[in-house]
């Protein structure tokens, strides 16, 4: 509640209420004065003017009666008396009525007036009786006696006239008092109004000066602060010296300035951070783009090598299938020559020796196939990782080609040995009957060789399919790498656009001028 008395609203309302109070005082004073003057006028009319009029009528009737007496005295004729007498009697009655009307319902508070009225009320009946006595004497035509009566009546008339004059003077004095009171009331109202007007002018002038100072000074300060903020100058020193509405306005401007300063600082730091991040992103994208291009080239070379390896493995599988077919034919030939070569024990021994070599060669082939399988697995792993741009995968591919060549040489050697065995079988056909049982064993051995070669062929087929899958994976990796390269280019363009936008943001907020100490402090806090 105490803060309300410090507000501009209270000050303006108080000044208006003070002016209204002065206007009410002036109005009430004027109304009181007007009522007093009106009351004096009414009292002057009812208590002075009308009584004076009635008193004048009484005085006129008294003088008229006296004139009538003088007239009858002057005429000294019965005819003159008879002519004047009706008017005289009527005047006497009117005089009686006039005085009764003058005194009816009146309270004479003035002692002097009451004494005069009492004497008139006492003398008027005597005057009336004397006049009536004069009339009686005049009716007897005794004019000499009437002269004495008229003289006595005139003496009483003079006294009555004097009293009526005194009463008129009292009423005139009362009228003068009413006039003096009216003038005094008018003067009081006039000077009261002048004093109220002067006080109102002084209060209004003082309040106006105070209000102008209380409004224009903080308002000018608020306009100055708003102008600085509009020009981009922030971190202004704003101090509200009052708790009124303009003080609240300055406090709101201070909070707005602080909030804008904080926001602009955050925008500046954010734009700088975004700019640095955009630079780092652009640099990283450039490096990533270079590495992606290198990886794409390596994958292209790897894909080409895998294609060649696939063709080699396919060729190896074909050779294995041919060897399998030859082994199958050898088995059939062994079955056909089973009866013939039974007597060829010596030849069969040599065939056994050759078979032993074939077994060794077969073991070599099996080892090669096993190593080929392991290398194929390594090639798959290397192809999946594609690390170091496929350098390791190239080594694996070279080993696979070497093993494939050794497999081909072994298969060729097997073929030559089989040819030798066939020749020996032809030479030992005469002994085939003796070595039938041994031939059966040879047949079984050849069958096992055929099965082994079939396994090699199947493994070669599996290896070929695996290498094809690896090749497809490498091709897909190449496509993904190309797509990644395109995405890297897009990311680089986006980073460049982000960098330009950050620069534009910094340029936009550069129009705001901040306190350098506060800005460095915010940067230090951000860095911490």
UniProtKB/TrEMBL annotation:
UniProt domain HAMP: residue ranges: 213-265
Major place of residence: membrane
CDD domains to which the protein is assigned, alphabetical: HAMP, MCP_signal
InterPro entries linked: Chemotax_Me-accpt_rcpt, HAMP_dom, HlyB_4HB_MCP, MCP_chemotaxis, MCPsignal_dom
A Pfam family matched in the record: HAMP
Residue ranges occupied by any Methyl-accepting transducer domain in the UniProt entry: 270-499
Subcellular location: Membrane
PROSITE patterns xref list: CHEMOTAXIS_TRANSDUC_2, HAMP
Keywords: Membrane, Methylation, Transducer, Transmembrane, Transmembrane helix
Entry's Gene Ontology BP terms: chemotaxis; signal transduction
GO terms of molecular function: transmembrane signaling receptor activity
Cellular component GO terms, alphabetical: plasma membrane
Membrane-spanning parts: 189-212
Similarity comment text for this entry: Belongs to the methyl-accepting chemotaxis (MCP) protein family.
PANTHER family reported in the protein's UniProt record: METHYL-ACCEPTING CHEMOTAXIS PROTEIN I-RELATED (PTHR43531:SF14), PROTEIN ICFG (PTHR43531)
Name under which the protein is recorded: HAMP domain-containing protein
